[in-house]
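Progress note, sequence design subtask.
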């Protein structure tokens, strides 16, 4: 299945988990497929991110941004577009740069609609890869700055259980992984 087909299936309701699909589809306007490792471990190469059209971002929010003729998913600051991974390139915004915010990243495509090939997914070491739930919880906590309670409500879990899941997921990440601190 092509990236376009899996995204179309998602938005047309051809999704096993209709509750998740309906909830996510209400929050976003379109999806974009990542290419590259600049936003790992939160967002993976080949993964589709869900985007809400918006022309403004708050400091630290992750967005889809046109920068000097190319489109990037980066953490936004007025003078910097930041990659999460050391493999990714940060961009210092200069006065003559062309920067257009296209939208805010509001989530990721559920695993059953991942645009990543099963072979690629299968080749990753199990003990080092994050599940979609772990990745989403880390994203919500460290990127979106959501409280443990808020994340727990979305997953019908207690604050403490969310804390435990995030802690265990963080242990899977390389020690040099830099994430913004939660509020």
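Output:
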């Amino acid at each position: 299945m092509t990236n376009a087909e899996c995204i179309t299936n998602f938005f047309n309701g051809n999704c096993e988990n209709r509750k998740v699909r309906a909830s996510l589809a209400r929050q976003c306007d379109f999806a974009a497929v990542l290419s590259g490792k600049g936003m790992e471990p939160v967002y993976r190469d080949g993964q589709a991110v869900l985007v809400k059209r918006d022309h403004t971002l708050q400091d630290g929010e992750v967005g889809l941004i046109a920068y000097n003729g190319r489109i990037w998913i980066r953490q936004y600051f007025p003078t910097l577009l930041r990659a999460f991974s050391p493999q990714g390139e940060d961009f210092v915004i200069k006065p003559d740069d062309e920067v257009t915010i296209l939208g805010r990243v509001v989530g990721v495509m559920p695993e059953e609609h991942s645009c990543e090939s099963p072979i690629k997914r299968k080749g990753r070491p199990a003990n080092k890869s994050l599940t979609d739930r772990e990745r989403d919880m880390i994203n919500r906590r460290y990127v979106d700055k959501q409280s443990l309670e808020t994340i727990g409500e979305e997953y019908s879990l207690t604050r403490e259980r969310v804390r435990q899941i995030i802690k265990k997921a963080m242990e899977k990440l390389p020690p040099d992984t830099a994430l913004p601190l939660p509020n």
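Residues 3-112 form a domain with the Umud Fragment, subunit A fold (CATH 2.10.109.10). Work on this subtask will continue into the next period as scheduled.
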